[in-house]
Amino acid sequence: MLTNFMTVAEQVAILFILICIGALAGKTKLIRKEAIPSLNNFVLFVVTTSVIIKSFCREFDTDRLKGLIIAVCLAIFAHIINIFIATIVIKDKEKSKQNVLRFATVFSNCGFMAIPLQSAILGDDGVFYGAVYVAVFNIACWTYGLITMSGGKKNLSIRKIFINPGVVGVTIGMIIFVFSINLPDIIYMPLSYVAALNTPLPMIIIGFMLYEIISAGKTEIKEMLMEKKVYIAIFIRLIVMPLIMFGLMLMLKVDRLILLSNIICVSAPVAATTSMFAEKFGGDKKLSVASVGISTIISLITMPVIVSLAM
Predict the structure, then answer these.
(1) Structure pTM?
(2) Minimum mean pLDDT range among 12-26, 50-64, 81-95, 139-153
(3) Fewer Cβ atoms within 10 Å of its own Cβ: the N or the C terminal residue of the chain?
């Protein structure tokens, strides 16, 4: 247990150092606030898609295909349970707050935080099973998440549900995997180089976001820290859901690699998408930034504990 904890803690510590670099880049103005949306989009649409496609570049295997189906079912179940718990537990008179907190409870940072950790601990095999969680996340995000954050169906779009990084990446990857397509180096190598950005860039972006919180001023920080319902959402996100999924997978005797890949996704902090959606669809922006920032800091302790327990 201690060895597993140290292994995961070391990887999380590496991610934390990258987060600190992002914060330092914000403080020294090497990265400016105006650049963050563009960097976010680049990571979301280009880097994440490249990582997912690269993880599927392997020969077809029926056992792996069965594993993918199991991973999809687990990802769907995790989101359904999250939605159920969030609907019952998270309530607030201010709808903008309630919407943000429910969104934060349901959606983990499975792209920015989980995939780098899966890659570091489990290698491409871990990302292979983790990629389908990202696809399910994207579908849930552009359906339930969009309706929740905007308070209605007016922004719902079929195109956004099915044409997003997770779904597109898995679709292309599945074609490569099922037909055992061997990509030539002239395509595979650029894909690998772009995919390699998935660890540093998201962490640097998160670091910048944390710096923004810290530099907001004592009054705003105090308001964020005093919002008790944020901690309820974070507790469900970081502790309750991982333990529920861990217990379920143990009962079902899920393959160790699939179990670990899923646990890393489920135990990740509040999705950075929470802030992006809050800004775009009228949610409480300060509350969204607080939930992302505070949960990311706390996850530096909870993720090693949960993942090492699963290991």
Answers:
(1) 0.81
(2) 139-153
(3) N
